[in-house]
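Researcher: Re-running this chain for the archive, since the previous output was lost when a drive failed. Same request as before.
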Amino acid sequence: MSELFYGADAPFATRSLMIAFYGMGLLGSNFVRALRRRGEAVQVWNRTSERARALAAEGAIPLDHPAQAAKGATRIHLTLSDDAAVDEVLELARPGFAPGVIIVDHTTTSPSGTRARAERWAARTPVRHGALPWSSSAASSP
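Model: Regenerated structure tokens:
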């Protein structure tokens, strides 16, 4: 598989073996399609299971529970609606996390929520957390 880098100094750059992706809206589903075109193995989950199942045609593996999607993943990607959804899905996925799994959150969340989440997860489990929201607003306020 290929190496993915999100910036020259990205602490979560890694060689991926399996990727779990949560949130199959417009952004998430297009991320998954792009990853599949690159030959990446991707397990997907969405609250509305039909959206995850639709990506099976692209070679993604749809699963019915967040913990199932996390199982075996070296990287977890999220494109969800808000802080509360991210917190809820990460809790549901946690039983499937491998030690050292990398969490990459593309959700446009609040800066304070993102910091609190990263600190909380770092304190309780061996994961690395990076926030890459698709909005400049998340980076502009403390």
